[in-house]
């Protein structure tokens, strides 16, 4: 069956090539298992189903223990029982074993509750995936989209053709839109459009990332400068407050000049000069440190910009080579 399918796919591909030589064939694939694992509603429902299955397994184990006890009791008391009682107990054990087997089949058999509830659980997500795939294929002009986790054998699949994340995002977006206001919905649509554009153009995504990092570095530099200015202002305010306190103390007589000896006055004068010199030195050191940090941040930002430019060039070069190789292959 797979062989016939592959032959049919090849014939379809040749037909598409004949009708779309200028554009070429655009093929993508999804991984249904990956999508299911990343859809919140499915993950929550699956967890509840697993809890049920665990409870069923516990009931089965408890039943097995009960049957084992009946067998052990019969084995111990067999010599003391009449044939009628032995037959009665064996019949009870057989009944319990059949009941256990029926329960196992009902819960875990091919048509059991576990398989049935899994199918019920997956069906709505599969419908959403199908709708999302149809929309993506129509908007982005895909000719074929396959399911990697199906019976179709894929010997190789390049990651750039995987649209599973786009499908997950489309499903998640639909759920978010139901909870947004008109203003939020408009902003969300703008954000989604930007994400879609970047998905189509990896070079643009890399460039946007570089711009975001550059913006973050610039904002950090501004924040550091603002913090340094605020610290300088706080130091000046503290110094001013100290001088005002000293003047007020002199006026109220808390520290009268007559009580000071000549030596104390000299000491006070020296301490004041020393304090002013120390404050001035500290201010110079702070300025030097702030300037050094500013130069270091600028140097780092310039190095990051240079690195990102090189990465963008390499990404663009690689994309160009891949496009050239793809055209040669076609």
TrEMBL record:
<dbReference type="InterPro" id="IPR005632">
    <property type="entry name" value="Chaperone_Skp"/>
</dbReference>
<dbReference type="GO" id="GO:0051082">
    <property type="term" value="F:unfolded protein binding"/>
</dbReference>
<keyword id="KW-0732">Signal</keyword>
<dbReference type="InterPro" id="IPR024930">
    <property type="entry name" value="Skp_dom_sf"/>
</dbReference>
<dbReference type="Pfam" id="PF03938">
    <property type="entry name" value="OmpH"/>
</dbReference>
<feature type="signal peptide">
    <location>
        <begin position="1"/>
        <end position="20"/>
    </location>
</feature>
<dbReference type="GO" id="GO:0050821">
    <property type="term" value="P:protein stabilization"/>
</dbReference>
<feature type="compositionally biased region" description="Basic and acidic residues">
    <location>
        <begin position="257"/>
        <end position="330"/>
    </location>
</feature>
<feature type="region of interest" description="Disordered">
    <location>
        <begin position="179"/>
        <end position="212"/>
    </location>
</feature>
<dbReference type="GO" id="GO:0005829">
    <property type="term" value="C:cytosol"/>
</dbReference>
<feature type="compositionally biased region" description="Basic and acidic residues">
    <location>
        <begin position="179"/>
        <end position="194"/>
    </location>
</feature>
<comment type="similarity">
    <text>Belongs to the Skp family.</text>
</comment>
<feature type="coiled-coil region">
    <location>
        <begin position="39"/>
        <end position="106"/>
    </location>
</feature>
<feature type="region of interest" description="Disordered">
    <location>
        <begin position="227"/>
        <end position="330"/>
    </location>
</feature>
<protein>
    <submittedName>
        <fullName>OmpH family outer membrane protein</fullName>
    </submittedName>
</protein>
<keyword id="KW-0175">Coiled coil</keyword>
<feature type="compositionally biased region" description="Basic and acidic residues">
    <location>
        <begin position="227"/>
        <end position="249"/>
    </location>
</feature>
């Amino acid at each position: 069956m797979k062989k016939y399918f592959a032959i049919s796919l090849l014939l379809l591909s040749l037909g598409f090539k004949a009708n779309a030589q200028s554009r070429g064939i655009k093929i993508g694939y999804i991984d249904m298992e990956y999508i299911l694992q990343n859809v919140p509603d499915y993950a929550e429902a699956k967890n509840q189903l697993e809890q049920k299955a665990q409870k069923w397994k516990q009931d089965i184990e408890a039943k097995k223990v009960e049957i084992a006890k009946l067998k052990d009791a019969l084995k111990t008391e067999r010599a003391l029982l009449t044939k009628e009682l032995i037959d009665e107990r064996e019949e009870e054990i057989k009944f319990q074993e059949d009941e256990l087997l029926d329960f196992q089949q009902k819960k875990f058999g091919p048509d059991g509750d576990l398989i049935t509830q899994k199918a019920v659980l997956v069906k709505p997500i599969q419908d959403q995936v199908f709708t999302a795939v149809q929309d993506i294929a129509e908007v982005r002009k895909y000719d074929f989209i396959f399911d990697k986790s199906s019976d179709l054998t894929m010997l190789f699949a390049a990651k750039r053709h995987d649209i599973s994340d786009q499908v997950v995002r489309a499903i998640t977006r639909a759920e978010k839109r139901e909870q947004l206001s008109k203003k939020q919905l408009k902003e969300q649509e703008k954000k989604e459009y930007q994400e879609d554009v970047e998905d189509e153009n990896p070079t643009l995504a890399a460039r946007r990332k570089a711009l975001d990092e550059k913006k973050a570095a610039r904002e950090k530099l501004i924040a550091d400068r603002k913090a340094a200015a605020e610290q300088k202002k706080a130091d000046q305010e503290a110094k001013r407050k100290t001088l005002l306190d000293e003047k007020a103390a002199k006026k109220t007589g808390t520290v009268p000049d007559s009580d000071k000896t000549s030596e104390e006055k000299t000491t006070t004068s020296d301490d004041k000069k020393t304090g002013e010199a120390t404050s001035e030195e500290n201010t110079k050191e702070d300025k030097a440190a702030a300037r050094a940090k500013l130069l270091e941040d600028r140097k780092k930002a310039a190095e990051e910009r240079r690195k990102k430019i090189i990465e963008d060039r390499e990404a663009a070069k690689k994309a160009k080579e891949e496009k050239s190789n793809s055209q040669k292959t076609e």
